From TrEMBL:
Name listed for the protein in its UniProt record: Sugar phosphate nucleotidyltransferase
Domain of life where this protein originates: Bacteria
Signal peptide boundaries: none
Gene3D superfamilies named in the record: Hexapeptide repeat proteins, Spore Coat Polysaccharide Biosynthesis Protein SpsA, Chain A
Entries under CDD domains matching the protein: NTP_transferase (cd04181)
Pfam families recorded: NTP_transferase
Amino acid sequence: MKAIIPVAGAGTKLRPHTYTQPKALIPLAGRTILSIIMDQLVEGGIKEFVFVVGYLGEKIQHYVESKYPDLTCHFVQQNSREGTGHAILLTRDIVQNDEMLIVLGDTITECNIKEVIESPYSMLGLKKVDDPRNFGVAEIDDNGNITRVVEKPQIPKSNLALVGLYKIKESQQLYQCLQDNINNKIKSHDEFQLTDALECMIQHGVRFSPFKVSNWFDCGRKDTLLETNAILLKKYKLASNPVLPYENTIIIPPVSIGEGCNIKNSIIGPNVAIGDNTVVNYSIVKDSIIGSFSNLYEVVLKSSLIGSDANIRGLSQSLNIGDNTEIDLG
């Protein structure tokens, strides 16, 4: 089985960070979005990955090859962003007749991934949501089989949202439906959607079984990213290293502090993730993500997302600062 991870999106909802950093590599609870996804799949037994890359794709490739040298990884370029359906179709020559596990590169789910992989049927991950209009939605019959899927319906007939995790046994049928949709210009919301191809498979008799996820984290926006960071910090029970206390500094767990950081005269936490080699002095930081090689001096940050190589002086309450930025708020 091969895992397909589309990571070609520009991440417009997380700009300015995604001007210089792929969304999948944004730090999260001491790791990255992509590493959390990949580690889960590796634990489930996946050893071969196919990445659909585009914007800043070379950074994705360098990260994967350096962090996971023992895995078999392929990289496919999506030059024009025409939707997830178009992205998946580009993997056809690599996957061929193998079963596949498709995992969207900006969502983190918690489920029994090994059980999903070993299922004799194709499966779609689902979770109940309050407002399903912003998601792909699945309808289920009395026997528990998925009878219909639709992308972002205006009038949903179900509150079961597709969470971005798909196990496909009939790979050639999926590719054929994707190709037919593109040939016939069948789009939803101006893009070729994976959901439409899944609906094509259902109409041609392919059986899809649902599986529920215990948690589903959407990392596509600043507010949900910070919320996810807080949840995962608590889950991983991360805290600063008690063997290396920071000068005149109070650490309020849970926090994650990278290697080589110089922190003093500050209060850090709760729910803070700081990248490697960052300097923090005379500052208060809570509920925030700070990138690597940044410099914070005399600032108060809460609910903030700060990129790498950022320099901030002065006082602030809530910021959304990209990489290579210098700000003096004094």
